[in-house]
């Protein structure tokens, strides 16, 4: 049977969580045919063996293994290219899915003809083997955005709790492969091609503290944010001036935070750019920010995609 939904799941050292995540995936309600595409990023623990065990037991599970660690951006794109579903379900596989997460996402996408549906997660201090994700109730909040890019440039949408149309993902080129982690680039790039985004407060996943998220290095996060927005600004000169100013502000905000975190960035020119951006008195020319790209690319303790040869 042709799957309606493809779960596309990059994996790196998730041995302690995979069985619990997969159990919550198998418990999904509804009659929605789906496949699961795990993309192992050269895990050094027992993750790959567990994934191959899943694949041997379930014909809807596929495992892609690799020989070079490339990061979740590249691995998510790799999995999406092989997916067969109309929709891609994108989650972190060290979390626990609500039992009706897929059913609710799919129903909303169909009802509103939406390209992108986003939900929430909730952190818990419970150990993963004790976590029970509650069923999503019907009294959730929903906002409909016919200008997805405008929404994404507002409050952040960086959690991996998405259902998106595969055609939109492919048209957008997926994640920015020049940046190691996909959190910022995925919603931004998708929103430039989507026609309708649904933002909900449904709690789709419970997030136990298993110590495997790549989000503790704030300098890395701001490095990634800067490059994502600068790259997007460079490849979309057709966007309205107001939108380009917002992208420029995102770049400058990331620079400002990186300086706070120790990046060697001169204060006075940055302050002038920050104030000018806030007031809107700025030409959002990406070439004016190239010197900062050089600073970011020479930072130590940052994972740069150029280190990956795959």
Describe this entry's structure for a reader.
The protein is an alpha/beta fold. The chain has two domains: about 200 residues, Spore Coat Polysaccharide Biosynthesis Protein SpsA, Chain A, CATH 3.90.550.10; about 90 residues. The protein contains eleven helices and nine strands. Strands 1, 2, 3, 4, 5, 6, 7, 8 and 9 form a nine-stranded mixed beta sheet that branches. Helix 8 packs antiparallel against helix 9. It is globular and about 60 Å long. It starts with a strand and ends in a 13-residue tail after the last helix. The mean pLDDT is about 90.
Q: What would the principal axes of the Cα set say about the shape?
A: globular
- CATH topology call of the largest domain: Spore Coat Polysaccharide Biosynthesis Protein SpsA, Chain A
Instruction: Compute the number of helices.
Output: 11
- How many individual β-strands? 9
Give the termini distance in whole angstroms.
33 Å
Mean pLDDT: 91
**Which structural category fits the helices and strands?**
alpha/beta
The run of helices and strands is EHEHEHEEHEEHEHHEHHHH
CATH superfamily of the largest domain: Spore Coat Polysaccharide Biosynthesis Protein SpsA, Chain A
State the CATH class of the largest domain.
Alpha Beta
CATH hierarchy: architecture of the largest domain: Alpha-Beta Complex
Largest sheet: 9 strands, mixed
The percentage helix is 25-40%
| Rg over alpha carbons | 20 Å
């Amino acid at each position: 049977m042709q799957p309606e939904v493809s779960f596309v799941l990059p994996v790196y050292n998730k041995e302690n969580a995979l069985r619990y995540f997969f159990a919550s995936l198998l418990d999904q309600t509804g009659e929605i045919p789906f496949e699961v595409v795990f993309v192992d990023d050269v895990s050094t623990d027992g993750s790959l063996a567990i994934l191959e065990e899943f694949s041997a037991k379930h014909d809807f599970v596929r495992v892609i293994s690799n020989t070079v660690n490339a990061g979740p951006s590249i691995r998510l794109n790799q999995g999406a290219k092989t997916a067969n579903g109309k929709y891609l379900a994108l989650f972190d596989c060290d979390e626990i899915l609500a039992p009706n997460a897929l059913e609710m996402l799919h129903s909303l996408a169909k009802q509103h003809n939406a390209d992108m549906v986003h939900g929430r997660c909730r952190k818990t201090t419970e150990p993963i083997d004790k976590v029970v994700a509650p069923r999503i109730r019907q009294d959730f909040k929903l906002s409909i955005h016919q200008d997805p890019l405008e929404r994404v440039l507002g409050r952040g949408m960086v959690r991996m709790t998405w259902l998106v149309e595969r055609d939109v993902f492919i048209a957008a080129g997926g994640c920015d492969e020049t940046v190691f982690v996909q959190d910022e680039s995925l919603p931004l790039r998708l929103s430039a091609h989507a026609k309708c985004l649904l933002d909900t407060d449904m709690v789709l996943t419970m997030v136990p503290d298993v110590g495997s998220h790549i989000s503790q290095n704030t300098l890395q996060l701001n490095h990634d944010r800067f490059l994502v927005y600068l790259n997007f600004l460079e490849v979309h000169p057709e966007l309205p001036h107001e939108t380009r100013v917002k992208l420029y502000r995102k770049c400058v905000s990331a620079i400002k935070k990186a300086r706070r975190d120790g990046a060697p960035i001169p204060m006075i020119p940055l302050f002038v750019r920050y104030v000018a951006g806030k007031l809107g008195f700025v030409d959002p020319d990406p070439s004016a920010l190239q010197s900062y790209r050089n600073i970011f690319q020479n930072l130590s303790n940052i994972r740069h995609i150029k280190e990956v040869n795959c």
